Input
Amino acid sequence: MQIDPNRDILGIIDAQPTFMPGGELPVADGDGVVPVINRLLRRFGHAFATQDWHPAGHASFASAHPGRQAYESIGMPYGQQVLWPDHGVAGTASAAIHPDIDQTRIEAVIRKGFRPELDSYSAFFENDRETPTGLEGWLRQRGFSRVFLCGLATDFCVGWSAEDAAGLGFSVVVIEDACRGIGLTTSDGRTTMDETRDRLTGLGVTFVDSRALLTNAG
Output
């Protein structure tokens, strides 16, 4: 797959220690994305990143709901919300972009989930599906039309970002080996990873391995 330096951009979703082994909400092998992301950054001319950036006591934290446990789902004014362990707390070291990631190619950082009452998975919208992060406008003003996504986690923040990007008219590619997923069990006995891939494929999102990008020049 060829990369067009004028219209293609790499999006690094929530590559933060909070989502990696030793963090508050670890994704299995989450730190395995770091070396792949660094190789991709050397291949792409442009990149943006996102960070979960929650205030203490955020409404998506199980600790904010007495009697509730992490990974339960509750109704919120904007819909169903999974309750998470406290994570991505603004200003903490674990909420920073992983220090081993080369940030010299990252041209914009979108912080999401900073509204105390509203969670945010997608790089483009908060979870009410209406409140924008501003990323769409930045990408359009810069002339980017195809977004390559990597990071954490495939079945939540990466997946929601891919869905919204496709809905906004961008061409979207998910770099599978530069992502890791959570894989919660769903009510029909499948996993959130299965559901995410099926949903995104139906929207025209392409899945590739990083080797398809790193072995092709131009």
Summary: The chain has a mean pLDDT of 95. Residues 57 and 82 are 15 Å apart (CA to CA). The two ends are 9 Å apart (CA to CA).
